[in-house]
Amino acid sequence: MSRKRVLVTGGAGFIGSHLCEELLRRGCEVICLDNFFTGRKENVAHLMDNPYFEIIRHDIINPIDVEIDEIYNLACPASPVHYQYNPVKTINTNVVGASNMLELAKRSNAKILQASTSEVYGDPKVHPQVEGYWGNVNPIGIRSCYDEGKRCAETLFFDYHRQYGVDIRVIRIFNTYGPRMLENDGRVVSNFVVQALRGQDITIYGTGEQTRSFCFVSDLVRGMIAMMEGNIHGPVNFGNPREMTIKEIAEMVLELTGSKSKLIYQPLPQDDPCKRKPDITRAKTELGWQPEVVLEEGLKQTIEYFRSTIEY
């Protein structure tokens, strides 16, 4: 039996490494491509002995030619701390990188999935967010390199589909968490867990009343593969519709870690969205997907991961 050859860009990152692992488990041959800006070799070190896994250090801003059947395009820093570090690089990764991967898909006659983001909705005026909503995004703000970069990548994907017949999939990922998050990525869950374990003050930006909806990484990976195997182009939201305030998340982390950390409040960063909640009707009805891991259980696994990896 011939194995599917699957390219995962950003494959050594938080989500990408879990995806590589699951694709191997399902019998695929996996090529992990990463420039290691935020990806880490230790995320995929346990896969290196698998004869059907290979890793290539490469930046998708530069074209590459490999023989593949499917592409999952995850390459791009996804946390504000990292994507604002070099905003020009970020937007080029999203736009030039997406174009290079679409050209590869066109040459190879491969299916290609774009990992887009809930950030395409900006600070939404529609709640919960449905795929038909066009968003409320500042095109010239400090987050625009990521938000508008991902929006432009979606445009490229659909134009390649209409103009060249490329078999595309576009998903919009809402806040994802779990083992292998970076401790310094500035995201809500990793920030709170690391601060709680170290006994540091827990930093809440704004009033803490802004909301987020958190999806465990294994649920997202299952959804990504369902999308690739399905027959719809998207866009499709993937996330957990359980909406909580930032303050509620902080209090839950304190309880689960047993930490005595105090909550402190800082000003809200520019263009930080006030609400986030996915409408996942399309994923449920067209792909039979919905999240299964409850937040408390996912947080326990994430806390155990950080307990074993960080210094405190």
Topology:
Blueprint: E1 5-9, H1 14-25, E2 29-34, E3 53-57, E4 70-73, H2 80-83, H3 87-108, E5 111-117, H4 144-164, E6 168-173, E7 176-177, H5 188-198, E8 202-205, E9 211-213, E10 215-216, H6 217-229, E11 236-238, E12 243-245, H7 246-257, E13 263-266, H8 281-287, H9 295-309
Parallel strand pairs: 1-2, 1-4, 2-3, 4-5, 5-6, 6-11, 7-10, 8-13
Antiparallel strand pairs: 9-12
Describe the structure.
The chain has nine helices and 13 strands. It is of the alpha/beta class. It has a seven-stranded parallel sheet with strand order 3-2-1-4-5-6-11, sandwiched between helices. Helix 5 packs parallel to helix 7 (246-257) and helix 7 packs across helix 9. The longest helix has 22 residues, at 87-108. 47% of the residues are buried. The mean pLDDT is 95.
User: Roughly how much helix do the residues carry, as a percent range?
Assistant: 25-40%
Q: What's the β-strand tally?
A: 13
| Estimated radius of gyration | 19 Å
Widest sheet: strand ordering: 3-2-1-4-5-6-11
Structural class: alpha/beta
Low-confidence blocks of residues: none
- What count of helical segments does DSSP give? 9
Give the CA-based shape. Answer: globular
Q: What's the SSE pattern?
A: EHEEEHHEHEEHEEEHEEHEHH
Strand content bin:
15-25%
> Distance between termini?
49 Å
Q: Biggest β-sheet, characterized?
A: 7 strands, parallel
Mean model confidence by pLDDT = 95
